[in-house]
């Protein structure tokens, strides 16, 4: 898919062009994330107790009334913001960054609201607590556990950096565990994130304990994120931070930062691990390892989820045999995969995605597909032909890469995604006014977030599935679009 990661350089802002042809409609998870001009409280029921709070607001769980799905909302109080940030609507900066990202170690975002008192950003509920709490619970981690954690963080950082985004506040509190029984995680909280293009920054952001020395010195770049990863790795391995003190004391120490890696605290840690730790905690950012290099470090390079050859070949065959559908069906299918279906069900597909993503930048190229198939003893010419077919079927926006959601859309069996519950929930979300049908303006606003899709095009799209010719899509027509004849009765609830 496109988005930030497909851009080689920032260009001047352009006005949205009017989309009047179905083939010109873009299909990406970010398309479905937009500002909801209604009242947050009309759509969500807010939990009484906050999960956490900060200088500008708080985070609470909330329940989407139409589907009973639990999400989280970041509530940012306008009374705590300077007028300049309110004028610029700076609170939505985070939402506008996250909506363009597509990676298994980054959170889903759904929508955002504004009223007279607050801004609301609605995000995925990640229920396993944060890494800070896990560290407090376990005290320290084995090298195997530490490698699982730090690799996922580095994969997220490498993807962000390949998209031209620096996070600037990576710390255990901003790393959420997907559940309490595993080390699967997501990097969250993009308040201080920003776009970079071969530039350096001067304004100080971050949390002192995890802040790179060059930030204190007043000139830094995206390599500051790697230092933060190094501090986290230090804590995982030793069970304690590298230094203590007040924020002011830590900032003063960072101005003349030196590590003694001969300290007895590192006794028993393997040479490979120490090598990565030293490269992450290199004081000179010009000598510090990059995210891409860190992901390919000898300690981490062979760390992959276990997946059988037959599973890899089956998924590649699914993608090769995948056939495109109407643009509306493709949009809804993508919406369900990226915003509704439980991401925990994609474990095998995720393992294959990581296996294919050889350079670990969060997307799959044709060259990576060819390499894997040649490694599996397929002749080069056959592998190239196979890869060409896979790219043709999966890369729906012709960006030259297969992003994570594109990969899932083509590889996951539709019967697992287009379930009765998922289809019904998708319909309820699209039927914003709860009228029992999806109307022209509801569909138009859902398809694009800039109002660029023409009314006539949306009317033509609806006409293709509007069997009773009332100019709307009712629930039965919606189901008929997505389900084959064999399964239609089951999903409509007429039979089990």
UniProtKB/TrEMBL annotation:
Signal peptide: none annotated. Its EC number is 2.7.11.1. Its cofactor is Mg(2+). Residues 351-379, 382-417, 418-453, 458-488 form the EF-hand domain. Keywords: ATP-binding, Calcium, Kinase, Metal-binding, Nucleotide-binding, Repeat, Serine/threonine-protein kinase, Transferase. ATP binds at residue 74. It is an enzyme of class 2 (transferase). It catalyses: L-seryl-[protein] + ATP = O-phospho-L-seryl-[protein] + ADP + H(+); L-threonyl-[protein] + ATP = O-phospho-L-threonyl-[protein] + ADP + H(+). Pfam families: EF-hand_7 (PF13499), Pkinase (PF00069). SUPFAM superfamilies: EF-hand, Protein kinase-like (PK-like). SMART domains: EFh, S_TKc. GO terms for molecular function: ATP binding; calcium ion binding; protein serine/threonine kinase activity. Residues 45-300 form the Protein kinase domain. Belongs to the protein kinase superfamily. Ser/Thr protein kinase family. CDPK subfamily. Monomer. PANTHER family: SERINE/THREONINE-PROTEIN KINASE (PTHR24349). This is non-specific serine/threonine protein kinase. It comes from Stentor coeruleus.
